[in-house]
From TrEMBL, chain A:
It is found in: Membrane. PANTHER family: ATP SYNTHASE SUBUNIT ALPHA, MITOCHONDRIAL. F-type ATPases have 2 components, CF(1) - the catalytic core - and CF(0) - the membrane proton channel. CF(1) has five subunits: alpha(3), beta(3), gamma(1), delta(1), epsilon(1). CF(0) has four main subunits: a(1), b(1), b'(1) and c(9-12). The keyword Membrane applies. The keyword ATP-binding applies. This is ATPase F1/V1/A1 complex alpha/beta subunit nucleotide-binding domain-containing protein. Residues 136-350 form the ATPase F1/V1/A1 complex alpha/beta subunit nucleotide-binding domain. Keywords: ATP synthesis, ATP-binding, CF(1), Hydrogen ion transport, Ion transport, Membrane, Nucleotide-binding, Transport. GO terms for cellular component: proton-transporting ATP synthase complex. Gene3D superfamilies: 3.40.50.12240. One of its GO terms (molecular function) is proton-transporting ATP synthase activity, rotational mechanism. It holds the Pfam family ATP-synt_ab.
UniProtKB/TrEMBL annotation, chain B:
The keyword Nucleotide-binding applies. InterPro entries: ATP-synt_VA_C, ATPase_a/bsu_AS, ATPase_alpha/beta_chains, ATPase_F1/V1/A1_a/bsu_N_sf, ATPase_F1/V1/A1_a/bsu_nucl-bd, ATPase_F1/V1_b/a_C, P-loop_NTPase. Gene3D superfamilies: 2.40.10.170, Bovine Mitochondrial F1-atpase, Atp Synthase Beta Chain, Chain D, domain 3 (1.10.1140.10), P-loop containing nucleotide triphosphate hydrolases (3.40.50.300). It holds the Pfam family ATP-synt_VA_C. This is Uncharacterized protein. It is found in: Membrane. Keywords: ATP synthesis, ATP-binding, CF(1), Ion transport, Membrane, Nucleotide-binding, Translocase, Transport. It comes from Candidatus Sungbacteria bacterium RIFCSPHIGHO2_02_FULL_51_29. GO terms for molecular function: ATP binding; proton-transporting ATP synthase activity, rotational mechanism. Residues 131-347 form the ATPase F1/V1/A1 complex alpha/beta subunit nucleotide-binding domain. Residues 354-436 form the ATP synthase A/B type C-terminal domain. PROSITE patterns: ATPASE_ALPHA_BETA. One of its GO terms (cellular component) is proton-transporting ATP synthase complex. It comes from the Bacteria. The lineage of its organism: Bacteria, Candidatus Sungiibacteriota.
UniProtKB/TrEMBL annotation, chain C:
It comes from Candidatus Sungbacteria bacterium RIFCSPHIGHO2_02_FULL_51_29. This is ATP synthase subunit delta. It comes from the Bacteria.
Length: 489, 461, 169
């Protein structure tokens, strides 16, 4: 049945009239056989979702950009809210209802549609998270590792580098063969375009589906965005691909839902959020995970984003989502201002299931790094007393500088795993003790560039790493190598 | 011959269905079904008017419509009960979710019940060793009692619950009890991992698992708590066994009730919760009491939303507990795991009669020492340790060592941390705490006390 | 009392359209406002001006039978108003401007085939072309010529467009 107003009207034979309009909520009378969660169509051709039915009227969440007029007509579609899906979605930017937002890149008609809001799968189809999910960001892969199928919250104040991290994770995963799904929730049009451009620059747009809603779209559309995105992720999983899905950001989504609930006269709860704000996000995030499918074990790894204000970790939405995800990465404003890149706080960040996917060497490195950084942090407190610093403290502080230079990925997007280990081995030992900050930076960049561009260099470096399972062995093996000869320069 | 009570659907919102019954009144908790499809079930929850009622949709609400005729089954939700529940994983309705066939039931039981009768309540008090130093010393578990694990997001509640389950159920098979595990509103992944762990350690055959994860609608999450409680009662009263009951997370039970009451437009009470919150908590906990005949030992995690321990749902749980283990985000961020606050946690078992004079005195002294150290902390941060009097310096340093000693490697984190877990007997913990208090270890640096088992692991100078 | 009831039922039965009902309700409102100060003669004059043609005779009869006390009169009017508001509306969209004869024709058919308690809301909508569109309590049926023509072209759109293109070239 074609989804246009007149068609629906005559096929189903029921009509409704708009009685009241309260922002994005429309109250209608009529449509006697209307069902909960049904999709309805206004005479303008715009859609709405039935959210509540009472004896005398029905409440509809409108997806229409322009306010619906009182007295206008509504028809039933007898369908649940579904989104058209297919492989053609890759490389496209669509609205949560499945239309391409760029008229110059239209979508071919889809062969399949799927409902947007479905129940998450039970434990029967789940599998333990066992494969690593490389982000290409050394600090994360070594200290706060992620596994495929993990839900990891990315949070921090605005402009602390979260977007860069998300894009890099997508890059790494796509290079690993996964599909990317990026949900942009209620951001302004410029931000949406910039994300698209970044993905194009990285050369991965053709492997990503962008589902977007802008800040001036109907609140109902903003609300739908992450659910539509998750449905698309599930489609690709069911067709044999791993997926990395980014939800940017859920604080905006929570506010949109709050607006809808308050307008619908639901009693406000904590911070005026509705009582079911938890369920709104939990049923979304629970659809990600590691699954047993007919194509083998496949994962939907999810990176939801929450913006904090003044670094407040204990906010309501933040703690809600922390209690759903399998860990969180915290971007700290102060660290960003100090110049640290990425501005991730390794002590406040948590990964609950990532470490089990690491090799023994990686686990050892992770432990060594975290305990080293903790001790050095204590030394900093000490050092600010102005007392004479012992030799071992001086050396530790120098090492810390090397470590942060190693982590600093401002100039390059992706550090493959073998290279992470190689570079770590060099900076952890005394091999680069006397290099200055800028010397280190240039050296690391050179190595990265050569690794990327020259096969022999890659093979040589990989050769140094292979077979090593202990940190001591790694450091020893790399202690005396001559970098210039390694790079062939 | 009772005629069926019939009615029609007036409206639907989320999972709440408003229904008018014309030829009689259904009882609260009765199941009503669609006349056209008896598989579509709802449960009568409360009145909404003189002839109208609010019902909870127990399956997807998508097939309900205005005017649909419905009929009451005159029965509440019943689940299968019996030995067939052991080793199985079920949902709130008793349907298997472990891929195996239906439960072989000895009988069907309603999921709602009355609290234990006054006469039958047991007042026996006995400590159950957990092997976790900080818990055993500061907030020991009472056999047949209730222990609550309180904490915000990501501070280690579920980890500790799993560790307790491991130490009590898996390590100490001598406990000779059946376990029931209720996953109310928690992650599917955790439910899945728990079942896998129980299976792996061969402990599933003495356990029954009921799961209603956070992705399930509120009615399901609410009912999961009731179904699990009914199973505990059955094991206790009919099969006459001691039961270990683990519920993760009791806060989600209150939250589910809140979600439903919002839709029914009940005027919210403090913190926006349903006005019936306190009585709902009381009824649930009242059924989980030990009788003279059999003990029910309950471990419940309580999520603290927004890190706000004064939240009404959190507060509503406290009065039902014998012991409270309170987690602290500050302590977590200092990386002292398990991140438990030894001064905020408490236990009703810490009396000379139940715990014994030695345990009781040791704990009191330790708490006093830790409290003193907090007071001294301020002075230290201003002028440094060296400015303290000798006595105070000793107290301050011993307190730090004691605090560090309370950290422990957990079995359930072996996979993540790569370090083996440890079970430390209560007697060792008490003895070692006293040795620190006495000054025997004054010469040892405080870092040596981190993440060890007993003090004998430190090579004494 | 029975007489009064019969009287007001008689009035309600004469109302045929939504528009007639609105006018009658306006009349009740006006009369109710002047209940205490009006004479029978004035009342009759207002009836002749305000009340729709079809209901005039019945209304006259009812008014002359009314007792003098204002309380009873008020009660009668309230009952009348409720009965009118309880009437259910069948909306009919037709292509022509309905004359009184057409309305009478439609109304008698509904009264005969369906029963009492239903009045019409007849709308003139040229786009219908012929036939009619019906809406009753949320139910919608279209038996218009416009729809039939649309369907005709829709099914044969490809064939027709090819045919015409062929001809054009």
């Amino acid at each position: 049945m074609r989804l246009d107003f007149n068609n629906c009207l005559s096929e189903i034979g029921e009509i409704g009239f708009v009685e009241r309009v309260v922002s994005s909520l429309v109250y209608i009378e009529g449509l006697p056989g209307v069902k909960p969660q049904e999709l309805v169509i206004f005479e303008t051709g715009e859609f709405g979702l039935v959210t509540a039915i009472s004896e005398s009227s029905s409440e509809i969440l409108s997806f229409s950009h322009i306010p619906v007029r009182v007295g206008s007509r509504v028809a039933r579609t007898n369908k649940l809210l579904e989104i058209p899906i297919g492989g053609d979605l890759l490389g496209k930017t669509i609205s949560p209802l499945g239309k391409s937002i760029d008229p110059s890149r239209p979508l071919p008609p889809a062969k399949e549609t799927r409902p947007i809001d479905i129940a998450p799968q039970g434990i029967g189809s789940r599998a333990k998270i066992s494969k690593a999910c490389e982000t290409g960001v050394s600090m994360v892969d070594l200290m706060i590792p992620l596994g495929k199928g993990q839900r990891e919250l990315v949070m921090g104040d605005q402009k602390t580098g979260k977007s860069k991290f998300l894009l890099r994770s997508l890059l790494s995963q796509i290079k690993n063969g996964a599909v990317g799904v990026y949900a942009v929730i209620g951001k302004n049009q410029l931000a949406i375009k910039q994300i698209e451009e970044e993905l194009t620059k990285m050369g991965i747009l053709s492997n990503v589906v962008l589902i977007v809603s802008s800040a001036d779209d109907a609140t109902g559309m903003i609300y739908l965005t992450p659910y539509a995105a998750m449905t698309i992720a599930e489609y690709f999983r069911d067709n044999g691909r791993d997926v990395l899905i980014v939800l940017d950001d859920l604080s905006m989504h929570a506010k949109a839902y709050r607006e809808i609930s308050l307008l619908g006269k639901r009693f406000p709860g904590r911070n005026s959020y509705p009582g079911d704000i938890f369920y709104t996000h939990s049923r979304l995030l629970e659809r990600a995970g590691n699954f047993r499918t007919s194509h083998g074990e496949l994962a939907i790894t999810c990176l939801p984003v929450v913006e904090t204000v003044q670094g407040d970790l204990t906010g309501y939405i933040q703690t809600n989502i922390m209690s759903m995800t399998d860990g969180h990465i915290f971007f700290d404003h102060d660290l960003f201002v100090e110049g640290r890149r990425p501005a991730i706080d390794p002590f406040l960040s948590v990964t609950r299931v990532g470490r089990q996917t690491q090799t023994p060497l990686q686990k050892e490195i992770g432990r060594a790094l975290i305990s080293f950084l903790r001790n050095v942090a204590r030394m900093h407190n000490f050092a600010s007393f102005g007392a004479e610093l012992g030799d071992h403290i001086k050396r530790a502080l120098e090492k810390e500088v090397r470590v942060f230079q190693f982590f600093d990925q401002t100039a390059y997007d992706r550090v493959p795993q073998a290279l992470q280990l190689f570079l770590f081995g060099l900076i952890w030992g005394d091999a680069w003790r006397d290099k200055s900050r800028s010397e280190l930076r240039i050296l690391i960049q050179k190595i990265l560039f050569m690794y990327d561009s020259k096969q022999e260099v890659r093979e040589r470096i990989d050769g140094h790493i292979s077979g090593i399972t202990r940190l001591d062995d790694l450091v020893k093996a790399l202690q005396d190598i001559n970098i210039s000869s390694e790079l062939g320069v | 011959m009772t005629t069926s009570v019939k009615g029609t659907i007036l409206g639907v919102e989320g999972q709440v269905v408003e229904v008018r019954f014309s030829n009689g009144a259904p009882a609260v908790h009765d199941i009503v079904v669609l006349e056209s499809d008896p598989k579509i079930k709802m449960e009568v929850f409360s009145s909404s008017g003189s002839e109208t009622y609010y019902c909870l949709a127990l399956s997807s609400a998508a097939s309900l419509y205005r005017g649909a005729p419905i009929v009451s089954t005159n029965n509440p939700i019943m689940i299968p009960a019996g030995k067939g529940l052991l080793g199985r994983v079920i949902d709130a309705f008793g349907s298997p979710i472990d891929g195996k066939p239906d439960i072989q039931a000895e009988r069907e039981i309603p999921i709602y019940g009355a609290p234990v009768g006054y006469r039958d309540i047991s007042t026996k008090q006995e400590i159950m060793e957990t092997g976790i130093k900080i818990v055993d010393l500061f907030c020991p578990f009472l056999r047949g009692g209730k222990i609550g694990l309180f904490g915000g997001a990501g501070v280690g509640k579920t980890v500790l619950l799993t560790e307790l389950l491991h130490n009590i159920v898996i390590l100490q098979q001598k406990e000779r009890a059946i376990s029931v595990f209720a996953g109310v509103g928690e992650r599917s992944r955790e439910g899945h991992e728990l079942v896998a762990t129980l299976e792996e350690k061969k402990a599933l055959s003495a356990a029954s698992v009921v799961l209603g994860p956070m992705g399930a609608p509120p009615a399901i999450r609410l009912l999961t708590a009731y179904s699990a409680t009914a199973i505990v009662e059955y094991f206790r009263d009919i099969m006459k066994m001691n039961v270990l009951f683990f519920i993760d997370n009791v806060f989600r039970f209150a939250q589910a009730g809140n979600e439903l009451s919002t839709v029914m437009r009940t005027i919210p009470s403090e913190d926006g919760y349903q006005p019936t919150l306190t009585s709902e908590m009381a009824t649930l906990h009242g059924r989980l009491i030990s009788t003279d005949a059999n003990a029910v030992s309950t471990v419940e995690t309580v999520y603290v939303p927004n890190d706000d321990i004064l939240d009404q749902a959190v507060q509503a749980v406290f009065s039902h507990l014998d012991s409270a283990v309170v987690f602290s985000r500050e302590i977590y961020q200092q990386h002292l795991l398990p991140a438990i606050d030894p001064l905020a946690s408490y236990s009703g078992a810490l009396s000379p009669q139940t715990a014994g004079e030695l345990h009781y005195q040791t704990t009191r002294e330790c708490q006093g020492l830790l409290k003193k150290a907090i007071a001294l902390e301020r002075v230290v941060s201003l002028v440094g340790e060296s400015e303290l009097s000798l006595e105070d310096r000793n107290a301050y340093q011993r307190a730090k060592k004691l605090r560090n000693f309370m950290t422990q490697n957990l079995f359930v984190l072996e996979d993540q941390a790569g370090i083996k877990g440890q079970f430390i007997p209560l007697a060792t913990t008490i003895a070692d705490a006293n040795r620190i208090l006495s000054g025997e270890y004054d010469a040892i640096p405080e870092e040596s006390f981190l993440y060890i088992g007993g003090l004998d692991e430190i090579a004494k100078k | 009392m029975k007489e009064q009831d019969a009287g007001h039922n008689e009035i309600v039965d004469t109302i045929r359209t939504k528009e007639e009902r609105s006018r009658f309700l306006a009349f009740i409102e006006e009369l109710a406002g002047r209940l205490f100060r009006i004479s029978k003669e004035d009342a009759i004059r207002i009836i002749q001006v305000r009340v729709p043609e079809c209901a005039v005779a019945a209304t006259m009869r009812a008014v002359t039978d009314l007792p003098a006390d204002p309380e009873t009169v008020k009660g009668v009017f309230e009952k009348l108003e409720r009965a009118l508001l309880a009437l259910r509306i069948l909306r009919v969209d037709v292509a022509i401007s309905p004359t009184d004869a057409v309305i009478e024709h439609m109304f008698s058919w509904v009264r005969r085939e369906v029963g009492r308690g239903i009045i019409l809301d007849v709308i003139c909508d040229r786009t219908v072309l012929g036939g009619a569109r019906f809406v009753f309590e949320g139910r919608y049926r279209e038996y218009t010529l416009a729809k039939k023509i649309e369907k005709f072209f829709e099914n044969d759109r490809e064939y027709i467009s090819k045919k015409f293109l062929h001809h054009a070239s």
